[in-house]
Amino acid sequence: MKRILSFFWIFLVALILVSCEGKGKIVIKEPPNAEVYVNGKLVGKTPIVLELKEAKYDIAVATSPWDIDIKKGVQVYFDKTIELKFHPIPRGLLVADTKPQGAQVLEGKDLIGITPLKEKIPVGKHELIFKLGDVGTTRVLNIEYGKTTKIFVNLEKAVVHFYARPSDAVLIVDGKEVGKLPTTLELDQGIHKVTVKKGIYEDTFDLKVKKGDEIKVTYILEPVQLPPVQAYGPLSFTPDHKYLVSMGKAGIYFWDLKKFKPQISLYDPKDVRNFDKFINYGISQNGEYVAGIKPIRKLAYALEDKTKKYDKILVWDMKTTFPVLSKMYPMESMAVAFSKDISKIYYITKDGKVKIADFKTGNIKEEKDLGHKPTYVRYRDGLLYVATNDGFIIIYDTSSNAVKESKKVHSSKINTVEVSKDGKYIITASQDKTVKVFDNQLNKVKEFSFEKEALSANISPNNEKIAIGLSDNSAKAVGFSSGKVLYEIKNLRAPAKFVVFANEEVLITASDINNPVVNIWKNGHLLKKWIQTIE
Asked: Measured between alpha carbons, how far is 180 from 162 in angstroms, rounded to an integer?
């Protein structure tokens, strides 16, 4: 009997010790009447005292199914009591899955869970990281109160949503036609060649993606113009034909026609607000210097003799794009050019004078009288080609400072004179509604007649086409040999007082300073370019 009693007491003591082994307490008083969950299991309502074994627990308190406060990894210590305070906050349900499954879902460094995942998280914007091995990606979600937000992340490929404006454009990826936009594709990690086209408008882009990406790619077809600088003519190309040159609201611009952006801009550092604008420019034969003409009108109050009209001439060194000469002259010039050796600068004035200045000092050393009022001037290989108000073409040789040729070629005012790229032809556009082509001795080669005044004309680089700007806000391209109209551009926003070919297909038209606009055309169609944006 004693042995049985002894065993019973030993068993009872052991049972008491086991029941007390490693336990601590958690006290939760507020908020009142809130449900309490331990590791996801409902254990009662507040106020409550929890007696738990020594370990870590996830404890949640909810005043409603969508108002919850969670404390993760709460440590319970043996024979210790801790009091926790909870403040339930609004939540929504996140349902997340990945391919393959088993990815970590993190916000910052905090682990929310492993996919597939269902978790109530606070309302608002969340930047979540989905990570599996060395593949990781980010998604931004907006969680709404009491609502379920679902997300699926492909960690094996990139998901790309393609859109276009206008729609129905054709999409080609890596040489394979996919179909019309909009569409969604899964792409392997790497760089893909994406071509989008609609009608004659087609562009190709590189699209770099990585596993886990989900991106929106939009292509917008926009007219190619030269904004936002309010570009205007005259137009020309640099001697190496690398840049198109125009003027604009802040100076002289050099355009890369592949990027349709100004790569170089020349301005007057002493007139940063651009009160007076440039009217013309000249480029040295080697392309190293550029001269610009700026009539001083709005800033005339600063002039000593206010009864005269002044021009400011600036010369920039293209290596630094900084002015090496800035000088005021009491004259009204319309064109500027350099001698071949860049020792002299030539100013052609509106009253028919050729003023010759020293390049280093800018001081005028000599003056010649052309005997006619010029309307337009082009410089080529040491020669000044001067069109006049009474229908003459004058070729002035800067090496001898003398007139080489002078001939009346039109019955009235000549609006423009241009020289072909190879220097073989001279082309004129006249008020008498004709466009004429001459050789270097001013012998007529071709003549084209129109119903309206010809404001401008130019010849394509291969001498295959003639472009003409007409006074009715239209432009035409005709075959050089056939004279047949190849295409016509109507309803220009302003008269095309300047035309120039970039190549046999691309024609550029420009107005003057009074209504600045430059348009680029491909075979008579307004050139448009697909612009790619990625979100």
From this structure: 10
